TrEMBL record:
UniProt-listed InterPro entries: RAPsyn (IPR052480), Rapsyn_myristoylation/link_N (IPR019568), TPR-like_helical_dom_sf (IPR011990), TPR_rpt (IPR019734), Znf_RING (IPR001841), Znf_RING/FYVE/PHD (IPR013083)
Annotated source species: Arion vulgaris
Pfam family, one: Rapsyn_N
Record-given protein name: RING-type domain-containing protein
SMART domains in the cross-refs: RING, TPR
Residues annotated as domain RING-type: 362-411
GO cellular component: cytoplasm; neuromuscular junction; plasma membrane
GO-annotated molecular function: acetylcholine receptor binding; protein-membrane adaptor activity; zinc ion binding
GO biological process, one term: positive regulation of neuromuscular synaptic transmission
Keyword Signal: no
Record key words, sorted: Metal-binding, Zinc, Zinc-finger
Length: 423
């Protein structure tokens, strides 16, 4: 009788999950889990619950089921299951903006089971997301490239979709919006090959938000709004809180850029509320930045300073250097307006330091990457240069005919570190 009940609950859960009714699927899996005795079966259900909870932004609860996976894997003394459990913990931490913890658990997962598995490519993806969160863009690029190689060699379309989308998001972060759109449109094209009842179609609304972000940055506000509205409708239908929050933030930003601050303000507040609820601290930093810009629009520099300092404190705790940089830039601009030279000088020094720490200088022209909209080209080492500058690396020099010049940034870093040049 008990086994029949478990079977029915699992069937209902799978049906709900395929229909993107994630909360209902979780409730059925929880019922089945209570009746189970086999640790292997319990491990698999905990993994499904963890994944579904992440889909609706319940990252803290998801982490508790990842912890149960760890306990079950230790009980079975199975290295493969231990590795998978560490990955679940890493994923929950990455979603919760605990980026350093996510990187640590990704490495632990790889070390526990160094053999390739069905989720090893997803470890690279998770690590890339965490590195992007801490603004280590060179490492993020390397992880995404590794993830894409795994996706193509293993013919894993879902991994290819997710990696392509995150590469698009990375380019958007660095100011190359055309490349962002190219990667995201590729991901959307790949989604077209999935069946109508495939739950992985949930990723369409996430990718649509990345597309909307790029359109917003390009000043194509009508297209950004249309994409955002599409994503918001499906997110509300499936109780996808993370996407709802992102859409509200984008709506607010678009209204601010159109000088409609009355519409922008409540949307910033709603986005911040959801992000606080689900634990998206990086999103909160971005929303605070948007609110600070809105305060500047009405010349409320005191409020803008307060919001920027709040964002800076949160960005520092997360370890996101790019958002720290943006906060300092905004505070520096406020210092210029208020004729506070000492404050402006202090922020200018920190800005320069953060740019150097993030390796955000084009190694060829010396300009800051992302300071303006510009096409970028990633080098094999992971450094980015302006596409207009990359042609200089293709020029042959005496004795190097047919060979591409080495990365200037790598060459500079090696010359500054004699130990590295001999290793």
């Amino acid at each position: 009788m008990g086994q029949k009940m478990v079977k029915k609950e699992l069937e209902r859960a799978d049906t709900f999950y395929n229909e993107q009714r994630f909360d209902e699927a979780v409730e059925e899996w929880k019922k089945a889990l209570k009746r189970m005795k086999n640790p292997d079966d319990m491990f698999k259900i905990c993994a499904k619950i963890c994944s579904a909870l992440c889909d609706v932004g319940k990252y803290r609860e998801a982490l508790s089921y990842a912890g149960q996976q760890c306990e079950l894997a230790n009980q079975l003394n199975d290295t493969v299951l231990k590795s998978e459990a560490y990955f679940s913990v890493a994923l929950c931490n990455e979603k919760s903006c605990e980026f350093s913890k996510a990187i640590t658990y990704c490495r632990q997962s790889q070390q526990t089971n160094p053999e390739k598995s069905s989720y090893s490519g997803y470890i690279h993806l998770c690590m890339g997301n965490a590195y992007a969160g801490t603004s280590e863009f060179l490492k993020a690029w390397g992880s995404y490239v590794d993830g894409m190689e795994e996706a193509k060699s293993g013919q894993d379309k879902v991994l290819e979709i997710l990696t392509s989308a995150r590469l698009g998001a990375l380019f958007c972060t660095l100011g190359d919006y055309e490349s962002c759109l190219a990667y995201c449109n590729n991901a959307l094209d790949l989604l077209g090959y999935l069946m109508d009842d495939d739950p992985n179609l949930k990723y369409k609304r996430q990718i649509t938000v990345y597309v909307a972000s790029a359109y917003r940055k390009l000043g194509r506000y009508s297209e950004a709004m249309d994409n955002c509205e599409d994503a918001m409708q499906t997110a509300m239908r499936h109780f996808d809180r993370p996407v709802q929050a992102r859409c509200l933030y984008l709506f607010a930003d678009i209204h601010r850029k159109r000088n409609d601050l009355e519409r922008a303000s409540p949307r910033y507040e709603s986005a911040s509320s959801i992000m606080s609820e689900i634990g998206d601290r990086l999103g909160q930093v971005e929303v605070l930045g948007g609110m600070a810009k809105a305060a500047v629009c009405i010349r409320d520099y005191e409020k803008a300073t307060e919001l920027n300092e709040k964002a800076l404190d949160l960005a520092s705790r997360i370890g996101c250097k790019l958002e720290m940089l943006r906060c300092h830039v905004r505070l520096d601009q406020i210092g210029d307006v208020s004729k506070d030279d000492s404050r402006s000088r202090r922020h200018s020094n920190v800005i320069k330091q953060l740019v150097e720490e993030m390796d955000l200088m084009c190694g060829i022209c010396g300009d800051v990457i992302g300071q303006s909209m510009e096409r970028l080209e990633p080098l094999t080492c992971g450094h980015f240069v302006h596409a207009r500058c990359a042609v200089h690396l293709a020029r042959s020099t005496l004795g190097r005919s047919g060979k591409r010049r080495p990365c200037p940034a790598c060459r500079k870093n090696t010359s500054l570190n004699p130990v590295q040049s001999t290793s």
